[in-house]
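Internal tracking record. Fields below are filled automatically when a chain is submitted to the structure queue. Please do not edit lines marked as system-generated. If the sequence contains nonstandard residues, flag them in the REMARKS field before resubmitting.
Queue: standard
Priority: normal
Entity type: single polypeptide chain
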Amino acid sequence: MYEENKAAANGCGKIRSGTQNDAALLALMEKTGYSMVQENGQRKFGGPPPGWEGPPPPRGCEVFVGKIPRDMYEDELVPVFERAGKIYEFRLMMEFSGENRGYAFVMYTTKGEAQLAIKILNNYEIRPGKFIGVCVSLDNCKLFIGAIPKEKKKEEILNEMKKVTEGVVDVIVYPNATDKTKNRGFAFVEYESHRAAAMARRRLIPGTFQLWGHTIQVDWADPEKEVDEETMQRVKVLYVRNLMISTTEDTIKAEFNKLKPGVVERVKKLRDYAFVHFFHREDAVAAMSVMNGKCIDGASIEVTLAKPVNKESTWKQHFNGQISPGPEHLLGFPTKEDGHQKFLGKPASLSVRLNGQHSPTPEVERCTYPFFPGIKLTPISMYSLKSSHFSSAAMHLDYFCNKNNWAPPEYYLYSTTSQDGKILLVYKVLIPSIADGSESYFMPDKLCTTVEGAKELAAQFTLLHLANCTPYLA
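SYSTEM-GENERATED OUTPUT FOLLOWS
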C-alpha cells in the first residue's frame, strides 16, 4: 500500500517540484492514515477512510469544488475541507501532465458536514485572489430519451426500456399539450443508481440503437434540485401541470377555491402548466392532496409543491449528473463516469427545469386554414390578443412586458467556443423597467448552437423566473 500511495503521490511531481510535492502528499497520508490511488483521470484520497465500517455515506453527502488553482493538491486542499467535518473520500480530477483539472469532489460522512462545507467554503479565498466554488453534488439517476413515437403509452415505454437496459425503476411520460392521447415524443427514465443510468446511456448512444425502428436521442436529464426541508415547510405555492392549453387562470382558480372559498391568492398559467398561490400553507397542502389526479377541462392534472428558486446561488445543477457554475461563467464540467467535458446546452427538443420539476418544452403546433380571395382582414395589435395565441417564449415575454407596462425586453448576445470548435451562444435578457431593486436581467444556464434557440431559451428562462417573483406577471 505504501508503494501504491507513493506512486500516486509521484503523479503530480511533474508540476510542483517533484521531491517537495511527493513528500508533502506522503506526509498527509501518514498523518491521516488515508490511502491514495490514481485511476481513470482522478486521484482518490480515502474512500473509505481508515476504520470505516458499513456502507458509504448516503446521497447528499458529497460536494463539488470548482475553480481550484491547477497547481494545488491534496496536501493543501484536504486540511481546508476537514474544517467542515470528517472526509470520507476526496477525489481530485487530474490531467495526464500531472496538473489538476481545476475541480474535485469531496464526500463527507454526513449531510450536515456537506452543508457546512458549502456554507463556510463557497467563495472561499484559497489563495490570494483565488476563490473556489462549493456546492452540493448529486448522482444523477435519470436519463432523457427523445424521438419516441408519440402514440406509445407509458406502459409500453417502461416495458421496452426494461428489455434493453437494466435497473429501470420508473418512466415519466408527459401527454401532448393539445392531444392528451399522445405523448410529447420524449420520456424520462429513472434508474436504481447513477451507475445503472450511466451504463444505460452508453448502451443507448444515438446512432447505434433504435426503439420501435426510430433512432433515439439520449442524454442526462436535469437532476431535480433538492430544497432543504425547512424551506419546503414554508412553501404555499402549488405547481400544476398537464393542463389543457385552453384552460384559463380563472378556471384554475375557481377549481382550487371549491375546496375552501377564497383560499387562492392568484394563479399564473404558462401554456399547459401553472402556479397556484395560496394565502396560507395549510390550504395549499390540503388542496394538493385533493386536487392531484383530478380532471380540469378533461385533463388529469398533476399537483405538487413548487420548489423555490434560490436566487442567491450562482451554482446550478447540470444535466450530466454533476454541478456546473452559473451562467456568468459559461463553462462545462465533465461527467463522473467518462471525464469528458460537456458544455451547457441541449437540443430544443429537450426539457427545461421548472423549480426542480421537469417542465416539457412548449411545442409549436401550427393549425392552418385556407386563405380565400376576398376574405376581409382587420388590422390588430398583438397586445390585444390573449397569451394563448402565442407559442413562442420570446413573444410571450414581450406580451407580458407590455401587459405590466414595462419597456420591451432587451437581448444581449454572448458566445464561447466548445472543445470541438462549435460556436455556442447565450442571450442575457434585460428588463430595464424593473427598478425596485429586484433582479432585472436574466441569463439561462445553457448554451445553444443557433441564435433562434438561444433567444427562445433566454426568454423562457426569464418567464419562469418572473412567474415566481411577486408581483411580476401577476
